[in-house]
Amino acid sequence: xxxxxxxxxxxxxxxxxxxxxxxxxxxxxxxxxxxxxxxxxxxxxxxxxxxxxxxxxxxxxxxxxxxxxxxxxxxxxxxxxxxxxxxxxxxxxxxxxxxxxxxxxxxxxxxxxxxxxxxxxxxxxxxxxxxxxxxxxxxxxxxxxxxxxxxxxxxxxxxxxxxxxxxxxxxxxxxxxxxxxxxxxxxxxxxxxxxxxxxxxxxxxxxxxxxxxxxxxxxxxxxxxxxxxxxxxxxxxxxxxxxxxxxxxxxxxxxxxxxxxxxxxxxxxxxxxxxxxxxxxxxxxxxxxxxxxxxxxxxxxxxxxxxxxxxxxxxxxxxxxxxxxxxxxxxxxxxxxxxxxxxxxxxxxxxxxxxxxxxxxxxxxxxxxxxxxxxxxxxxxxxxxxxxxxxxxxxxxxxxxx
Length: 402
Known about the structure:
The chain is α/β, with parallel strands linked by helices. The chain has two domains: about 5-60 and about 350-395, Roll (Urease, subunit C, domain 1); about 65-345, Metal-dependent hydrolases (TIM Barrel, Alpha-Beta Barrel). It contains 15 helices and 19 strands. The strands form three sheets. It has an eight-stranded parallel sheet.
């Protein structure tokens, strides 16, 4: 029997016909996986109805996280430890839901480094996401972050794309920075620990990858062509120059993920590209590694989407922080974490509260200091998190006229 939930008393965010966000105080009715009615009349049903008293709460579309790799900490919370993937992903799902993330693109880094970012780890992640699909509450997707020098992984990446396992693809180029930082003995040890090998072994992998630089351009072209054929959105990561962005634009890569310089940011917008930046950057007041300010980019209309990056809670808090800092309205800020990333991923069934949309909904108390307190999360029509269960009631109803 389908679940029916009525949400009443709150104020929900919706988009008008021109895509402009606004607020409504009408009731919402959920039926099964979807929103049956946003405002207006009731929907037809018989039997027991769940009634959620949302008085005083904001009702918002579930968060769509286009890039999050905090799950790596569940897998390897300390350099010398490693935990089972089934435990790690079950815990990750709980973290997502309790932070309002109903759609999560896991940033799976596939690199020549090996270890946590090697082939066995990638296969384990892919297998676990598939195995737990019927048991988790959030919609777990794969954002493949391919290191451009990983020639040994090219065949696997192409196979995963062709098999429909990848929802979002990013071209990463971390070898130059790793090569530079490896001059520090302390940093080199940290890289080796993540790669689950000794220092000598890591240096061997690094130099082998570096020797394959002449093959990188062709590999990027192959991967981009495969993604275009499957209709998979693509991003270039850490763009630094206009040339970087233009080169990827020519391959159909129209998302700039974490541009590092003003030149790259301006180039992306001039080309009509979509720009993704970090929600932690917003909360911290700037990039932790000396990059651009995400808040400033939002203020100037140069950032389209925020991602949790390495810290899941940031995605829920960043829009409220942007409002508090007078960067933009909460309604506009929420588009950065829900509607906009959903559209980039081609997920047109979510990111907006409207009849027929997937019922991914958050109910949030806006506290006196302007920060959010998540009261409830509904994912695919099911109440999966509730901090105030007294708000949920059941009532016997008769069939209601549409």
